[in-house]
């Protein structure tokens, strides 16, 4: 498997994964960090206000990112952040007939709790910002989105193709919503999706996390863990 992107060198490694180990080319790989924003990953943010954040779950997810992202950058793996948010006037949230404005928690909370607007996912607010412990660094790619999937209405696919990236390591929140939506589309667009299960958190009961992981193990991709990736990246 050779990297065809000008200036890159092929570096094929084997990642321990379920249902079986998978070969990836680090020169053609990106970590896709999904929606690690204050609204979703911080106390006092939208998810915490709406359903409550389990700090015992989210803290290890943040720590996994703190270990994984520096190792990925050092190994030449691209780091891509997805950042979910709406314009202040909500013009990109959907019109009156859009299902998005009926199902999206942020839209509902803006109407019900306008005083909490800055804790949601309105562009430029605290809630919209990527959390401080894993802020993007120079050379990272940040792609803004207004729907669950990182491919919906964005330049993500063009940017990945321009970098000749084919293998995508998914982290972030929520396992069963934005991570799954983006990773499914990645599979349909001929990328290789690999979920890093301990570097993501879900919303809702645990069976939704189990269902997402099962679907990717059996039908849509692979599932690995941070420690297994770190051994490969540092090796």
List the helices and strands and how they pair.
Layout: E1 12-15, E2 22-25, E3 29-34, H1 38-41, H2 46-50, H3 55-74, E4 78-84, H4 100-103, H5 105-112, E5 141-145, H6 156-162, E6 167-173, H7 175-188, E7 192-201, H8 206-220, E8 222-224, H9 226-234
Parallel strand pairs: 3-4, 3-6, 4-5, 6-7, 7-8
Antiparallel strand pairs: 1-2
Task: Explain the overall architecture.
The radius of gyration is 17 Å and the shape is globular. With 235 residues, it is α/β, with parallel strands linked by helices. It has helices at 38-41, 46-50, 55-74, 100-103, 105-112, 156-162, 175-188, 206-220, 226-234; strands spanning 12-15, 22-25, 29-34, 78-84, 141-145, 167-173, 192-201, 222-224. Helix 3 (55-74) packs parallel to helix 9 (226-234) and helix 7 packs parallel to helix 8. It is built from nine helices and eight strands. The strands form two sheets. The chain has a six-stranded parallel β-sheet with strand order 5-4-3-6-7-8. Strands 1-2 form a two-stranded antiparallel ribbon. It has a single domain, classed as 3-Layer(aba) Sandwich (Rossmann fold), CATH 3.40.50.850.
């Amino acid at each position: 498997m050779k990297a065809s992107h000008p200036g890159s060198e092929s570096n094929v490694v084997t990642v321990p994964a379920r249902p079986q180990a998978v070969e990836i080319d680090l020169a053609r790989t990106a970590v896709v960090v999904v929606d690690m924003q204050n609204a979703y990953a911080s106390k006092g943010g939208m998810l915490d206000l709406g359903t409550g954040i389990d700090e015992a779950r989210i803290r290890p997810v943040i720590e996994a990112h703190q270990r994984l992202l520096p190792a990925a950058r050092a190994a030449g793996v691209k780091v891509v952040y997805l950042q979910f948010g709406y314009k202040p006037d909500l013009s990109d949230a959907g019109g009156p007939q859009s299902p998005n404005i009926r199902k999206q928690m942020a839209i509902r909370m803006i109407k019900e709790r306008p005083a909490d607007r800055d804790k949601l996912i309105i562009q430029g607010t605290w809630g919209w910002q990527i959390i401080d412990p894993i802020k993007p660094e120079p050379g990272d790619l940040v792609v803004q989105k207004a729907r669950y999937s990182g491919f919906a209405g964005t330049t993500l696919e063009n940017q990945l193709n321009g970098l000749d990236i084919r293998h995508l390591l998914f982290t972030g929140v929520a396992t069963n919503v934005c991570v799954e939506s983006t990773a499914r589309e990645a599979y349909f667009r001929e990328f290789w999706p690999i979920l890093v299960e301990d570097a993501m958190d879900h919303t809702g009961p645990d069976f939704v996390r189990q269902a997402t992981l099962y679907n990717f193990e059996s039908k849509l991709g692979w599932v690995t863990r941070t420690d297994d990736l770190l051994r490969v990246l540092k090796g």
